[in-house]
Specification:
CATH class: Mainly Alpha
Radius of gyration: 20 Å
Number of strands: 0
Mean pLDDT: 92
Strand content: under 5%
Helix content: over 70%
Length: 179
């Protein structure tokens, strides 16, 4: 295994690793504003959790000729959004923060809204709007992180890719229900 650390630097690297050991994975090489990143990740967490609940409700409330396939898609998206929430919560912990799961605070932190709808078309539209909000929110957060926190950035880029797939799915479903 090749390393860029010169023998004279090894002692310094080892010493720095022992300093602030209570910070866990966050070392002196972490350059982002940790408190700001944790706050933004808690907003993303709240957004994901609100989306989980909205998709789950729509899954159960879906009615109509296309309801079975659309409800199945809602459930799949709900489960994927829960996976995103879990990833984000774990990253918040790694950064020394506390994930916000208080139901009283979630809708205030969430970028997306929890909208109850009565028709399948309205459900699909609201979920598409929420996905578009998530896409823009993740893009903004990724851009603000730059290369200051590559681990969080990569996680968010992965989530963003799935959110874009969700938006495509909702746009396709909207065409089916509208036709």
């Amino acid at each position: 295994m090749s390393t860029d650390i010169q023998p004279s630097d090894r002692d310094a690297v080892r010493r720095r690793a022992r300093e602030h050991i209570d910070d866990g994975a966050v070392t002196s090489g972490y350059h982002a504003d940790r408190d700001a990143v944790v706050q933004q990740l808690n907003e993303a967490l709240a957004t994901e959790l609100v989306c989980v609940l909205r998709y789950r409700r729509h899954h159960f409330m879906a009615k109509g000729i296309h309801s079975k396939s659309v409800a199945d898609e809602f459930l799949e998206h709900s489960n994927e959004e829960q996976g995103h929430a879990d990833e984000i919560a774990a990253r918040i912990i790694q950064l020394g923060g506390a994930p916000e799961f208080n139901p009283d605070r979630l809708t205030g932190l969430s970028h997306a809204e929890y909208v109850e709808c009565s028709s399948l078309g309205e459900m699909i539209k609201e979920n598409l709007v929420a996905e578009r909000i998530a896409i823009d929110s993740y893009r903004g957060l990724i851009q603000s992180l730059g290369d200051q926190d590559p681990t969080t950035r990569r996680m968010l880029e992965s989530i963003l890719a799935v959110e874009e797939e969700h938006a495509d799915d909702m746009a396709d479903l909207l065409q089916v229900v509208s036709d």
